[in-house]
Amino acid sequence: MNTLYLIYFGVIVGCITLPIIAFFSRHEVYEKWAKIVCILLCILGVSWAVSGFILIHWEHSISRHVYSVFNSIRGNVEGICIGFLLSLAIAKPFKKVTLDKLQSSA
C-alpha cells in the first residue's frame, strides 16, 4: 500500500510540474496546443491520483456498484492521460532557443 501512495504522490508532483515547465521554460518554447494539453494533463492526472487515494481509503465504505463505476471512470481518465502523454512525446512540440535569441529578446 505504501508503493501506491508513492506512485500517486509522484503522479501529482509530475502533473503539476509539467505545465510549469511548458509555460516557464527558458530553453524551449512550447506551442499553444502543447500548453493546453499540459494543463489538461495536470487536471486529469491529479484527479486520477486523488481518485486512487479515495478508492484506497473508502473501498469498504461505499457500495460495490459505486466502487465499480468510480473505478471505471478512473480507468477512462487514465487512458486519456496516456494518450495525451504519447501525443506530447511523439510530436515534440517545442523549439530550442539558442543563447543568441535569448540575448536579443531581453
Architecture overview:
With 106 residues, the chain is mainly alpha-helical. It has one domain (2-94). The protein contains 4 helices and 2 strands, in the order αβααβα. The N and C termini lie far apart (50 Å).
State the helix count: 4
Number of strands: 2
Percentage of residues in DSSP E strands: 5-15%
User: On the 0-100 scale, what is the average pLDDT?
Assistant: 86
**SSE order, as H and E?**
HEHHEH
Q: Based on Cα principal axes, name the global outline.
A: elongated
Enumerate the spans where pLDDT stays under 50 for 5 or more consecutive residues: none
| Percent range of helical residues | over 70%
Q: Helix/strand-derived class?
A: mainly alpha
Count of discrete structural domains: 1
Distance N to C terminus: 50 Å
Radius of gyration using CA atoms only: 18 Å
Major β-sheet annotation: 2 strands, antiparallel
Strand order of the main beta sheet, please? Answer: 1-2
